[in-house]
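Tutorial handout. Part one gives the primary structure; part two gives the three-dimensional structure as tokens.
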Amino acid sequence: LNTVDLCPVGALIGKDFLYQARVWFLEKSETICPSCSRGCNITVSSIKGNIKRLEPRLNMEINQYWMCDDGRLNYKYVNSDRRLTKVKGAASSEEAVRAIHTAIGKYGPGRVAMVISTWQTLEEMYLLRKLAERHRIGAVGVITLERGERKTFKSGFAIAADKTPNRRGAELIFGNGPTLGDMGKVAEG
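Part two.
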């Protein structure tokens, strides 16, 4: 789909955007692509909050002029009927802390583990680390999504195998801690 960006007269249009909107009616927002941990700079084009397309935004250090097709097409889930929009489980942070206290009281601080996702924001990960330190949580496991292999092109542009936005952030915040498999050993302890 990068060929669409190369067309000097705008005659090439991706099928997903064809007949969706007039470009002059689009609201544009600059952001970062959430499709992998590369952090490509993108522009989100929408109408009344409904995303119509994602396009690369120039950043010579990160993505140059490009973005991968997976990132470009990864917007349909936002308005999907299958998307989770309500929180399940603890309704408040106070209830979550009470649940941690209950588990620590029942099993002991060295036998309670925490699982984080690399889809979480860096701020959420930082707060979870502080929570784990304060309550002496035995282990923190990381859930991530690797799909395929890392692809590197002649220009040096690379597409990561990890398809979550904050894996590198999780490594910086939590270090190279235990895997989910290692966490089972903590529970068996």
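Part three, for discussion. The mean pLDDT is 82. The longest strand covers residues 41-47.
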